[in-house]
Hints:
With 513 residues, this protein is α/β, with parallel strands linked by helices. It has 17 helices and 20 strands. Helix 12 packs across helix 13, helix 14 packs antiparallel against helix 15 and helix 15 packs antiparallel against helix 16 (435-452). It is elongated and about 85 Å long. 5'-O-[(L-methionyl)-sulphamoyl]adenosine (MSP) binds next to helix 1, helix 7 and strand 14.
Amino acid sequence: MSAIYITTPIYYPNAPPHIGHAYTTVFADVIARYNRLMGRKVFFMTGNDEHGLKIQRVAEKEGIPPKDFVDKMAGVYRQYWQALNISYDYFIRTTDSYHEKVVSESFKRLYENGLIYKAKYAGWYCVDCERYYSPGEYIVVEDKPYCPIHNKPLEWLEEETYYFKLSEFKDYIVKLLSETNIVYPESYAREVLNRVQAEGLKDVSVARPRDRVSWGIPVPFDPEYTIYVWFDALLNYVSGIGYLTDESRFNEYWPNVNHVIGKDILWFHTVVWFSLLKALDIPPPRRVIVHSFLINKGLKIGKSAGNVIPIEFLVERYNGSDGARYVLMKLFNLDKDVEVTVDLMDSIYNSELADTYGNLVRRVGVLALKKVRGKVYRRDVDKKIEESITSLLNKYVEDMEALEVSKALSEAQELGKVLNTYVNEVKPWERPDPSKELYSLLEGIRALSIMLSPVTPRASSIISENFGFTLTSPVEFRVGQIERYNIVDAPVLFKKVQAGREKTGGQENPPGG
Ligand code: MSP
């Protein structure tokens, strides 16, 4: 069985992660957990992108060496991912020495193969972005070129640099983007393809003079230069699974990789990454999964827009990691930007987790304890319930395979509603022995807990432990499999939040933020 390799972008640790980074990481985690639930072997990797001027500057501002700064931030990121119950198998850091060797060696190989060459760069540059802008990419204000992001004048820059021959890969990129389904959803592939066809591909600078950028990996044969941070960062995806260090491990995972990214870094993860891999004679990844932005009042949530919602706010407000993960995944969308408000998250949490799932398991658990001392033996399952379980489980698997997590959660909701309606209809509390009704309900709860488990792993395992069943693969689920349920407790899983209290829309200070 071939293993599935899942990655998140490696994040710039200039500041702690916020709800936007959590959006990507939780989604990747849900895909990883779902695949494990299906019995597949998974290797899930996240990590930090620790070099470059951005980091160099924050460290300077804090008055500590950059390495100390990134060491501290690696701990901070790990804590956040723990608070969100992220089940990564490996946390990569680009300052790890084996990674630095892989980057250095790859740079050398490309140079020796004539794919990297030295030449002068002359053009416009944004110091805040730390990137070059060619005509058409910048805006013009009073006849002067301006950075479209920072709205500041660009600087004219002339320096010797090293170029990577991106232009050589145009046909390869066009073929990959137009003939395969490597980018998902496909609309993003078309977007890149249009740009490549309209503008062509120009060689890109992959180094900076050391006196301008010192915090990074030196060019191995010319230490007066630092390797460009994106060249360094992209290679994490191969160095992290043993490229050039552990060939058998590398071959076990590559190329069956799913890169999860936000649409802001689409160009780097398609045109630049695919070309770099081709240049190194490595096959392309199986798939790049692209999602849209979480926005607030129309703007992408981020540090520069100042509309950040802190992760600790979500975790505190929604009863820990499960609630935070659930609201993020219910909002999740690959194609469209999603406007997020606390009201919206409150209503998702209250109605779907507290009222539907939480209330159902509490009611059924308490009834089973009261009526039959927690022991519920196998009976014929109500036909309507059985049909709902089977059809919704099937739909759930279809949705998850298509990465439609939010839709999959709606199937789970549907089952929760069917079960709640059934409780109200059959009124088990009025029956002397409601074993048949309870068994049907418990089979439903078991299916529902399995469906929710990639998103709310903690709640699912609490219920499976307290009710006495195991969380099997959804495709191995058979109605009537369980001989006897043994309920030992009926915990309240999700306390409702009081709408209107302690709110943040990024404007007010949230608790802990
Ligand atoms: N270090 C680079 C990535 C290198 S990967 C080889 C980088 N880092 S980042 O810290 O800026 O993270 C960018 C990613 O964070 C986005 O691609 C996206 O996955 C996530 N998001 C950050 N803000 C987001 C939103 N407001 N909405 C959705 N995703 C967001 O770029």
